[in-house]
């Protein structure tokens, strides 16, 4: 339904005067109601409702994709850190083996060939350590972008500010967050 109101007020002077007062006023009030519109109002309402549902679904898909990207980045970073730790532990074990083997070589128990073999392994593991450290740094940089977006846009009072720049607290916070 619609309601239209129009008002006019004016002054009109004529010679010879035909009305007792020269002032003139008019008020128009129009009420309109569509009794039948062939279902177009209901159709427009349904279309608007479906568009709203579609927008909500698109928002949820975009949000889920972002959370998946952040979670994948976090897991890649965690796996790279674990790989780096494993390679460093292997290097430490190999260094101990080298020390034992070198001592045995100096005593005449092992041959030069055995020492050369383990020295080659030491060089190979040093490359593995550098590769693992580089992978961990790359994963951290990749993960940090998505993680900063989540912690900086966090719901106020949820603890995002306290963990934004502290790696250990952020890891603990991610575990609490369910990532």
Give me a quick take on this structure.
This protein has 179 residues and is mainly α. It has helices at 40-107, 112-152, 160-163, 167-177; strands at residues 2-11, 23-32. It contains four helices and two strands, in the order E-E-H-H-H-H.
Helix and strand topology:
Elements: E1 2-11, E2 23-32, H1 40-107, H2 112-152, H3 160-163, H4 167-177
Antiparallel strand pairs: 1-2
Helix pairs in contact: 1-2
Textual characterization of the structure:
The protein is built from four helices and two strands; from the N terminus they run E-E-H-H-H-H. It has helices spanning 40-107, 112-152, 160-163, 167-177, and strands spanning 2-11, 23-32. Strands 1-2 form a two-stranded antiparallel sheet. The chain is rod-shaped and about 140 Å long. With 179 residues, the chain is mainly alpha-helical. Helix 1 runs antiparallel to helix 2 (112-152).
């Amino acid at each position: 339904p619609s309601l239209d109101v129009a008002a006019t007020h004016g002054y009109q002077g004529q010679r010879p005067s035909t009305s007792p007062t020269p002032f003139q006023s008019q008020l128009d009030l129009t009420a309109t109601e569509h009794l039948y519109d062939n279902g177009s109002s209901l159709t427009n309402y349904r279309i608007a409702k479906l568009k709203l549902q579609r927008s909500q679904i698109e928002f949820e898909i975009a949000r889920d994709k972002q959370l998946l990207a952040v979670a994948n980045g976090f897991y890649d970073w965690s796996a790279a850190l674990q790989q780096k730790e494993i390679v460093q532990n292997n290097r430490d074990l190999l260094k101990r083996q080298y020390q034992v083997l070198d001592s045995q070589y100096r005593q005449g128990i092992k041959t030069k060939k055995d020492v050369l073999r383990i020295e080659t392994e030491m060089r190979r593991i040093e490359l593995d350590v550098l590769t693992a450290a580089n992978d961990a740094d790359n994963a951290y940089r990749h993960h940090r972008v998505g993680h900063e977006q989540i912690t900086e846009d966090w719901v106020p009072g949820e603890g995002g500010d306290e963990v934004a720049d502290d790696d250990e607290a952020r890891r603990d916070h991610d575990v609490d967050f369910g990532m």
